[in-house]
Design goal:
This protein has 550 residues and is of the alpha+beta class. Helix content is 45%, strand content 15%. The strands form three sheets. It has a six-stranded antiparallel sheet with strand order 2-1-6-5-4-3. A five-stranded mixed sheet has the order 8-10-11-13-12, with helices on one face. A hairpin with a 2-residue loop joins β10 and β11. Mean pLDDT is 76; it is low at 1-7, 145-169, 183-200, 305-309, 381-387 and 495-503.
């Protein structure tokens, strides 16, 4: 499915390094690509390739905006397992370092190797984490970091949108989630922030350096705010300050009731108002930063919602269009080569072009699924009409098994779905039923080991025909994964970073669940199996008895 990425990691690095980024966009793209390659395949690369990639990142870093570096750190932190890349991000500016060190997952040996190469800010964040092995905690204490870190509150469970991959597909999944969560919320005042239990959480004091980065705080958990900058405005709901604060910082002016957004636990996250004064060195008059205080906003200070569901839907459709247009162009040129429309083409190039055409068709199917998910999220009521249609799920399962013959042969996996009861007619359209069953089975085949069998049952209860079930046993690779992990677009059974081929698992399951709910069903993720529930179109037992009585 992801055959377009037909080059190896080392050749990708060589290709990126041969090109001199001509502008800001090219530098950002190179930064993301190199970071993603190291996060996914760093442990498999030759030392020379790793050294060259890390050197290139160090050279690019001053030219890449801090927000881009911070977003990359967030996306890679939970999925990256490559210690040198973690060390590189840990020694960035505080906002980037904090984003990486809050969530990075390394082995004990890797942590012990990385710690001496980190700065005090990174170690202070690590010292506040409670999930590190004891030897790592002792090493932190020996380095003197524990004295500057306050205990962190338990991390709130986050949706997969926060871990989304920097790839276009993962970004689209994140935006669909954001749109879906915002739907149905009427325009009007946001509800006032809940009263906080502890008085110290109602306000806090802070201090910045000359660069505007907050380095000292009292009255709130350090991890929620240390490393944020008041020098640049944050947009799109990102943590940070508004344009009022950023403008005042440039003028070294007083800040009064500026807006601040924080992430973190329930007591820290949300909207704040802060005021701050610049302070200067008495002897020299040199600017030293800002000192200020923050509080929760009063009810009359909360702005009205400006975003509308229509605008969000237009944005998603535009992004789908941006994905589809270059894909059609690539496929079109490949078809020209394959068909020799402009003249003779060598056999090797024709084979390559035919492969690209097939890969483009597979990616086109994924984009169609993205569009379906966006449409069902935007207008679930429009899918209600599908409930009047009927589909033979048993026939569709048979057809899917036949269609996946090539994939099953490539993976050396077999599929066995038995029928219990019957008939197996569901209240959904034939197209949606094919998409649900096909996506579910394909996703589980993709994560199955060679030689494994995907075992399932298609069940209907003649006594209670309100639902029929397609139940498939979890493959070994995802047997111990939680439901949240399986629905995460960036989750991989192998622990790889977002962008790996397995990335489609979380999206596929989300799509199946979305389509099922639009048809009055659902996808349940149990401990042993994944079960697709669909409304049965079979007459209920009471109706059968009544008709027989007549």
């Amino acid at each position: 499915m992801w055959g377009l990425l037909c080059v190896t990691a080392d050749s990708m690095i060589a290709t990126i390094l041969r090109q001199t980024p001509a502008d800001r966009r090219a530098r950002i793209a190179a930064w993301r690509q190199l970071s993603d390659i190291l996060a996914q395949r760093g442990n498999q690369l030759a030392d020379e390739d790793v050294r060259r990639a890390l050197h290139a990142l160090a050279v690019l870093r001053p030219e890449v905006p801090e927000k881009v570096r911070r977003d990359c750190a967030r996306a890679l932190a939970r999925h990256g397992r490559f210690a040198p890349l973690v060390a590189l991000y840990a020694n960035d500016v505080p906002a980037v370092s904090v984003a990486m060190m809050r969530e990075a997952r390394l082995s004990e040996d890797d942590w012990l190797a990385v710690l001496p190469a980190t700065n005090p800010m990174a170690r202070s964040v690590l010292a506040g984490r409670g999930d590190l092995p004891d030897p790592v905690q002792r090493a932190l204490a020996a380095l003197g970091s524990a004295s500057v870190a306050l205990p962190q509150p338990p991390a709130a469970a986050e949706e997969a949108k926060d871990d989304a991959a920097p790839s276009q597909i993962s970004e689209l999944v994140r935006r669909i989630d954001k749109f879906q969560s915002s739907r149905g919320q009427p325009l009007g005042p946001r509800p006032a922030a809940p009263r906080l239990r502890a008085k110290e959480r109602e306000g806090f004091l802070f201090e910045t350096g000359p660069d505007g980065v907050i380095h000292w705080v009292e009255g709130i958990a350090r991890g929620a705010i240390v490393g944020l900058s008041i020098a640049e405005a944050a947009f799109g709901g990102e943590p940070g300050v508004d344009g009022v604060a950023a403008g005042a910082f440039r003028q070294r002016a007083e800040m009064i009731n500026a807006r601040l957004i924080l992430e973190g636990g329930a007591e820290e996250a949300g909207e704040w108002r802060f005021s701050a004064l610049p302070w200067f060195e008495p002897a020299t008059g040199q600017f030293r930063g800002y000192r200020g205080s923050a509080r929760r906003p009063r009810s009359n200070e909360t702005p009205y919602r400006a975003a509308s569901g229509d605008a969000a839907g237009d944005s998603i459709r535009q992004l789908i269009h941006e994905l589809r247009s270059p894909l059609n162009a690539i496929s079109g040129f490949a078809q020209i080569l394959s068909g020799q429309m402009f003249g003779p083409v060598s056999q090797s190039y024709r084979r390559m072009a035919q492969t690209i055409v097939a890969d483009a068709a597979a990616v086109q199917a994924i984009i169609d699924d993205l569009e379906t998910a966006a449409r069902s999220s935007a207008n679930p009521s429009s899918e209600a009409g599908a409930g009047e249609a009927e589909a033979d799920i048993a026939a569709i399962v048979t057809q899917v098994e036949s269609d996946l013959g090539g994939l099953l042969d490539d993976h050396q996996v077999s599929v066995s779905i038995t029928r219990i009861g019957g008939p197996f007619r569901a209240r959904t359209s034939d197209a949606d039923a094919r998409r649900m069953v096909g996506r579910l089975v394909t996703a589980l085949v993709d994560v199955s080991e060679p030689g494994a069998a995907v075992i399932g049952q298609l069940v209907t209860d003649p006594e209670h025909d309100d639902m029929l079930q397609l139940r498939i046993v979890r493959p070994t690779a995802i047997r111990s994964a939680t439901a949240a992990e399986l629905l995460d677009p960036g989750y991989s059974p192998e622990g790889e970073a977002p962008g790996a081929a397995i990335l489609s698992l979380g999206f596929s399951l989300r799509l199946v669940d979305s389509l099922a709910r639009a048809a009055g069903g659902r996808l349940d993720i149990g401990h042993n199996a994944l079960t697709l529930h669909l409304r049965s179109a079979n007459p209920a037992k009471a109706e059968k008895d009544a008709s027989q009585g007549d």
